[in-house]
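Hypothesis: this fold can be encoded by more than one sequence.
Test: take the structure tokens below, design a sequence, compare later.
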């Protein structure tokens, strides 16, 4: 995910991660500890979506705060010889 922020706005990565997690209703997987994997999998199972759905949710949440953005969502397959990818951007450039 790429966002364009004004020079006056100070934004750390943590608020951006929290915004993404809230819009997707699931934590970032790399932040999940091994002991939490079962709960993480259960939460994801209750919140099924395609990469296109995730990209739309992120675009809606991010676009509300950042008028210029680019988002790429990937589902990296472990069982199939292909990955699923969705991209969306604001259509605006700085």
């Amino acid at each position: 995910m790429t966002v364009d922020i004004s020079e006056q706005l100070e934004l750390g990565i943590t608020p951006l991660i929290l915004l993404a997690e809230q819009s997707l209703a699931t934590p970032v997987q790399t932040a999940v500890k091994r002991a939490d994997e079962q709960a993480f999998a259960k939460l994801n199972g209750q919140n099924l979506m395609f990469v296109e759905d995730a990209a739309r949710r992120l675009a809606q949440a991010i676009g509300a705060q950042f008028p210029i953005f680019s988002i790429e969502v990937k589902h990296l397959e472990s069982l199939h010889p292909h990955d699923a990818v969705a991209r969306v951007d604001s259509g605006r450039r700085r």
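The radius of gyration is 15 Å. The mean pLDDT is 81.
Hypothesis status: open.
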